[in-house]
Amino acid sequence: MSSQSILLILLICISYKTVSVSSQIETLTANLQWPSATSGYAGVELELDEDQEETGMIERRSLYWRSMHYYISYGALSANRIPCPARSGRSYYTHNCHSATGPAHPYTRGCSAITRCRR
Prior knowledge:
Layout: H1 3-31, H2 50-54, H3 57-65, H4 74-77
């Protein structure tokens, strides 16, 4: 064989591999796509077989494609929000913890044989 025919066969093999790999990559990326936070599928009913309708597939898919909104409220970010002191015994998020009166979390425990408390 001449060097030109060997080169031609080599180029054909390389181009075949390139096409094969690119089609595999396209298939892989199509299968790995996730819905965005503002998905266009929210509220859209999907056409499915009767078997899938019976198993509740529509409900599962509609919940999956529903848009998600995660945010911090403005109330949590307000500058005038003073958290409760750590040693006060109150929750960090107790409303007006400085003006609250009474015991925060009074310690009460039942008496049982395992705790060996005296009566």
